[in-house]
Design goal:
This protein starts with a helix and ends in a 17-residue tail after the last helix. Helix 16 crosses helix 17. Helix content is 50%, strand content 10%. With 638 residues, it is an alpha/beta fold. The strands form 4 sheets. Strands 7-3-2-1-15-16-17 form a 7-stranded mixed sheet. A 5-stranded mixed sheet has the order 8-9-12-14-13, with helices on one face. A 3-stranded antiparallel sheet has the order 4-5-6, with no helix packed on it.
Amino acid sequence: MLQRQRYLELLSREYDNRYAVYTKLINLNAVLSMPKGTEHFISDIHGEYEAFKHILNNASGVIKEKVRLVFTDYSKEQIDELCTLIYYPNECLLNKEKDGSTDLNSFYTKTILDLIALSNYLSSKYSRSKVRKAIDGDFSYIIDELMHAKSDDQNSRMAYHRSILEAIIKTGSAKYFILELCKLIKRLAVDRLHVLGDIFDRGPHPDKCMDLLMKYHDLDLQWGNHDVLWIGACCGSALCAVNVLCNNIRYKNFKMLENGYGISLRKLAMFANSTYKNEKDFPASHKAVAVLAVKLIGQLVKRHPEYELDDRLVLDGLDLEKGTVTLTDGKSYKLKTTDLPTVDKADPYALTTAEKEVVDDLVASFTGSVRLNNHVKFLYSKGTMYQCFNGNLLYHGCIPLDEDGSFKKIKCDGNELSGRDYLDFCQKKIREAYTLRDQDHLDFLWYMWTGPLSPLSGRRMKLFERLFVLDESTWHEPRNPYYTYYYEEKTCNQILREFSLDPNNGHIINGHTPIMAKDGETPVRAGGKLLVIDGGFCKAYQAKTGIAGYTLIYSSHYLHLKAHTPFTTIKDAIANNSDIADLQVIAVEDFKQRKMVIDTDLGQGIKELISDLEDLLEMYKKGLLRERLTDEKGNPFI
């Protein structure tokens, strides 16, 4: 009772009299009756900046859908042209200025009217207060005026708004006004963005992807295994740093490392060229990094027997004279190269003095990168292991299961944990790693990248075999039983209940796994209980999948998966009004009744606040709390 009293006293500081409470209660009850905002789900961006930027710009087709609804008499060409302008206003306006055949004033006038009409339509699901907050920049007052233009009996308001439009053209500010309107439309099209991990690796510009995300108005992140690998490198893990290099050397992203993050590769290049041979399919630099990774993995395995990764002690079975390696299956396999001069048979996992110098230099580069540190801080501030949002469960990889489909019990610092408790433990360790940066926590970050019981991965990676062994049968990476059981409704219901969600209404939204659409695979699992939305941004996978991946839209009307064609370039999109066409829209659920704010987590929070404010109001009415009233000028009495 005393705690409740104290809480209401604190609440009274914000709502200091009954009239403030009346106003807030009226506002909150009205907000509950509005449609829920549109949620946009994206996963596995993998550094493909241009495709990612385009998906953000077009909101996976939401903007084009709204343009079609507003401008029903427009041709396909007109719709495509208007959408391209909204996606890339700077570039499109510059092209119009260069085009001598265009009457710019007429174009500006029509475009502004179209954008105002679209803004009005998109703003209809938000309160006027929220829309005003969304209007950013110096034109906020003018945009607000035009969006709420109404005619009256004498048409004086209409004349007023026509004068505003004419003044925009006359002052030469039309271009800048259009830029702000396009920004507003993209802001109103999506209320919240969910990113289900793997922003980094493979593609050329994860750095630019991170910059875009840091400017986004409202988002949450679920870490992916590639993201945690970069977090580990930034926090000082030599093994994570070397694995980052392995990935980026494989995909030839040297420029991004050096220009984007200031990661110096000079010492590595000098060491590699003076130590290893440049072979046709195995350059010296790649070889040097690969050997470093295998050695450092071996050291970690010996530090952590609880990880049960003894099969990664592969250098024990190395026979360079025969050019073979004996793996844990007892069989010998031919190596791709025997040019491994730094591997000491007596102590194969020890680094040479030169190797240690290279590793120390790399760690200093990663930990000292100002831009990378800013990006990692953002990953920590916005990121989680999983997210429960509006009845859905979001995570990147898996919930580790046992062979019988039950939650796998895993030893964690002396305790056996499973399901949600295990993910909470992993999240705690990842967060502690940023502050502590001791060997144990840095090793744990690497395990989250590649460990067979990592919720971010769930497969036993075979780095050595893929890099050094010719026989591709050894490359197979066993996956956790989760990836078999997640096709079953029973398993998905079990997982939803574990996270206190309603299996009858909730869905699991999962990233991490590319969908082989060309082989008939579907992203819908367990009768719609689980949806896999690997974005398919990675160009290296598109030939295998036959598609550019899936994104998900959860609006007030529906829950739809969008399949996309591969993106070419931003230049092509602007020149030809081309888009990432919707190959297929999978209607997971179309709602018979429109989803409103009252049906969401936000609505639940509002209802709780309403209850608190009603109690506060009662306290004021009974005189149990002092009201701070104002005089006739609105000034509070002191």
